[in-house]
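From the pipeline queue, job 12 of 40. The input is one protein chain; the requested action is below.

Action: predict structure.
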Amino acid sequence: MIKAVFKTFLLLGILFVMLYVGMNNTHEIDFRFPIAGWTDKKPVHGSAALIYFGVLAVGVLAGTIFHSLGGEKGGGKKSGSKDR
């Protein structure tokens, strides 16, 4: 139970940081990500807050996918006294 509360507070903290960044970065920026290839020649032009949020969203989705796929091999369910 305490672990779920801690994770909720951590998520709320991250969301607060995103809100704070969005409130203070309302100007337009050019976002370049040369590894992707196409953004090097034609950068993404948009609000700084939306681009920051997009990068965070991609990171959260990737982390969720990696976490859910990692449970089958080494990070599987550990046997404890309740399983016996």
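Job complete. Residues 2-24 form the longest helix (23 residues).
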